[in-house]
């Protein structure tokens, strides 16, 4: 199946899981907002002079003593975060998938050239390599800020096959999302400070500003369990801020992978009967998608 065909149904299904009170019309309107926001944010990725696109007032608010790892999300105009860090004078390393590196690296390095900045100002770390954690430690030792986008992409089947202790469960609107704790465990082991960083929408004027939490630093003789608890508390505050503020600007709604009803936990009010289906056509095959139970039913002619 082509994932592009699945964006809308999975967006509807995942959003409805967290906001069950939304009606069909509300979901459709918010989906159109989400799609428009994603397109507008993507346009900001084109190479340009930083002075033209960056708010200099925001640049001045970025702390000059950042170190270690900055955890961010694919929320709002998140592609601006590396630019703001560079404008604030930092050398950075961005942890990304091979697909993202192939897609973005040429335009990013062209932008460095346009702005007369050394190509070494930004480097990528391939998140799929077995040596990714070692590369992060090396980048920190090289006095780079490591920008890591952390997303909830753990499906129920994946979680069942893994050690639950390696995952962080965050409660949102009486539901839960799972995130990898590798970055926190790495920071604990090597004493690397962690901050959470995101483009934050101002409730008053609607401007997107850079928001950075206070550093989470290792305390002497602190056990790993205590450190992870503090990490989870900061993490939950940031993520719930996103959801409570302008949740349509979170890019990852269709990619939460919560569409495995055979293993998903259900409550007493959940019905296995289809309550709302969407017609979908993929590769010349027709389906109905049960939005509530997240199941496909193929339509076959006799």
From TrEMBL:
Name of this protein: Lipid A biosynthesis acyltransferase
Source taxon at top rank: Bacteria
UniProt source species: Sphingobacterium detergens
């Amino acid at each position: 199946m082509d994932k592009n065909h699945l964006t809308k149904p999975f967006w509807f299904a995942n959003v409805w899981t967290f906001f069950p009170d939304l009606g069909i019309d509300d979901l459709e309107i918010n989906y159109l907002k989400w799609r428009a926001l994603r397109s507008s944010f993507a346009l900001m990725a084109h190479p340009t002079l930083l002075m033209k696109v960056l708010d200099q007032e925001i640049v001045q608010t970025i702390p000059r003593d950042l170190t270690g790892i900055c955890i961010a999300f694919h929320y709002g105009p998140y592609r601006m975060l590396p630019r703001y860090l560079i404008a604030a004078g930092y050398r950075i390393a961005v942890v990304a998938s091979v697909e993202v590196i192939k897609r973005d690296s040429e335009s990013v390095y062209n932008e460095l050239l346009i702005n007369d900045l050394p190509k070494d100002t930004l480097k990528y770390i391939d998140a799929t390599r077995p040596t990714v954690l070692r590369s992060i430690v090396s980048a920190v030792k090289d006095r780079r800020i490591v920008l890591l986008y952390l997303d909830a992409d753990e499906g129920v089947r994946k979680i069942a096959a893994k050690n639950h202790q390696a995952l962080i469960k965050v409660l949102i609107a009486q539901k839960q999302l799972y995130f990898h704790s590798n970055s926190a465990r790495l920071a604990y082991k090597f004493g690397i400070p962690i901050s959470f960083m995101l483009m934050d929408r101002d409730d008053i004027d609607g401007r997107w500003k850079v928001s950075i939490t206070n550093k989470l630093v290792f305390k002497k003789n602190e056990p790993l369990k205590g450190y992870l608890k503090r990490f989870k508390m900061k993490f939950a505050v940031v993520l719930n801020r996103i959801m409570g503020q302008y949740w349509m600007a979170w890019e990852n709604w269709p990619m939460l992978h919560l569409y495995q009803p055979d293993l998903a936990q259900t409550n007493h009010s959940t019905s296995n009967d289809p309550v709302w289906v969407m017609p979908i056509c993929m590769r010349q095959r027709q389906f109905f998608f049960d939005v509530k139970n997240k199941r496909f039913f193929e339509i076959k002619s006799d």
